[in-house]
Amino acid sequence: RVDNLSSGVRDQPGQHGETPSLLKNTKISQVWSTWSKHAKPVACSGDWLGVRDKCFYFSDDTRNWTASKIFCSLQKAELAQIDTQEDMEFLKRYAGTDMHWIGLSRKQGDSWKWTNGTTFNDWFEIIGNGSFAFLSADGVHSSRGFIDIKWICSKPKYFL
């Protein structure tokens, strides 16, 4: 973790009078530079399909939203996050007529959030009044999370 890498830097004075925060930012920059030089695209394995910078898994069986989320977590993935129109078109085309859980949910009265905690920016419409989102052939809908349908997981295609 970056926090651990920079923890020893906080209490040490800079060799050229730098502030500890500057040293920390320099350390973070060095870590990022090293990571970006060594990160390699990895072929998506087994039943996972690669599109752009992500690997996607389309389930064959059905589960509720929470069980689907747990399945994805065990695969070191999340329920699918749809970031671009290209992702949306691919997922709809591959999913066909089946409904699939994706990684959007909301608490009553709150805004939609992805499973990684980021707020959904409303770039596509979510039809319905439910608390859990699913993808179907005609777009994204919402429902209560206890129905059993298929799901889609996603994870990055880049690893160290």
From TrEMBL:
One of its GO terms (molecular function) is carbohydrate binding. CDD domains: CLECT_NK_receptors_like (cd03593). Residues 1-21 are annotated as: Disordered. SMART domains: CLECT (SM00034). The keyword Glycoprotein applies. It is found in: Cell membrane. It is a single-pass type II membrane protein. GO terms for cellular component: external side of plasma membrane. Residues 51-151 form the C-type lectin domain. Keywords: Cell membrane, Disulfide bond, Glycoprotein, Lectin, Membrane, Signal-anchor, Transmembrane, Transmembrane helix. The keyword Disulfide bond applies. This is C-type lectin domain-containing protein.
